[in-house]
Amino acid sequence: MKSDFHKEHAIGIASGAGAYLLWGILPLYWKLVSEVPSEAVLAHRIIWSFVFMMGILLVLGKGSSFWKELIQLSKQPKKIASITFASLFITINWFAFIWAVNNDHVIQTSLGYYINPLISVLLGILFLKERLSFWQFISVLLATMGVLNLVFQFGEIPWVSLILAMSFGLYGLLKKTAKLGAMIGLAIETMLITPFAIFYLTATTNSMSEAIYASDATIMLLLFGAGVVTAIPLLLFATGANRISLSLIGFLQYIAPTLMLIQGVFLYGESFTTAHAISFSLIWIALLIFTLSKTKLLRRFEPGRLHQKHSYESS
User: Fold this and answer.
1) Collapsing DSSP states into helix, strand and coil, what is residue 132?
2) DSSP per residue over 11-31, as a string?
3) Which residue in 21, 47, 46, 45 sits closest to 33, CA to CA?
4) Is residue 18 over pLDDT 60?
5) How far apart are CA 97 and CA 82, in angstroms?
6) CA dist list (Å): 279 to 16, 35, 116, 151, 159
């Protein structure tokens, strides 16, 4: 029994780490199609993600579950609204990421995904009435200081980072309220926006051959593969999340932005200044505090607890 638990735990860690590893090296994939306009890459990513997810659902025998979910969804206007807006925000996130990578802003994508967990906390407070602990407040404050440092140093707001963090945070919030499974959820989301993607490709190209870049077999295959590289990390993440704790998932999620940062600096030669180093350091410290905020190590040093301890010792 114990060996089964360890086996499941190991599968969970491997799956979770695999998901974030693939997300982390995704810039390498989008760079391969950098000659294609970001809008067209996005359209292909949406279409082929839907095709791939439907194929996966059929292979796994979940086609009937998909249709049942659609029927139930049609009877719940609030849920329809949630999943529709989720589709919108994930589309914004995908476009911002593709555009940033292909316009040499990989470091900004890294910053965006480092900020994302803290944005999610703020959204939870604003919309789900969640409370912010003392150390979570400190972590959000430090991350805000990190972003503001870049604003003051360069005189501009890191829009790409904030759009990535906000869009993915809002996507997660809406997914939480819609309460759909990872696979069926992604299939429905991409189904909703696939007609718009098809319309874009047909409206901006003269023929199907031109739309799918049939004149360049490599580019064509890479565009078809956009659905695979989108869906596989999500499936791995779903596998991992069901087998390991949320805190462990929290540690693993920093694999992706760290890999993006390494690529931006060492592979693509993007500028990483002292201002970047200070901001990233503040955000890394913020994330460390945030990750440890609910552990006994930090909770014992919360002001309220320190006051209680002092009062107890005085008495």
Assistant:
1) coil
2) HHHHHHHHHHHHHHTHHHHHH
3) 45
4) yes
5) 22
6) 27, 32, 15, 10, 15
> Which CA distances in Å does 132 have to 122, 123, 206?
8, 11, 54
Question: In the chain, what is the greatest distance between 2 CA atoms, to the nearest angstrom?
Answer: 84
Residue 132 has pLDDT above 80, yes or no: no
Inform me whether the pLDDT recorded for 177 exceeds 50.
yes
Q: How many residues does the chain have?
A: 315
pLDDT for res 305: 56
Q: What global pTM score does this model have?
A: 0.87
Q: Beta-carbon neighbour count of residue 310 at 10 Å?
A: 10
Residue 154: CB atoms within 10 Å = 12
- Which residues contact residue 243 at a Cβ distance below 8 angstroms, ignoring those fewer than 6 apart? 8, 9, 11, 12, 15
pLDDT at 60 over 70: yes
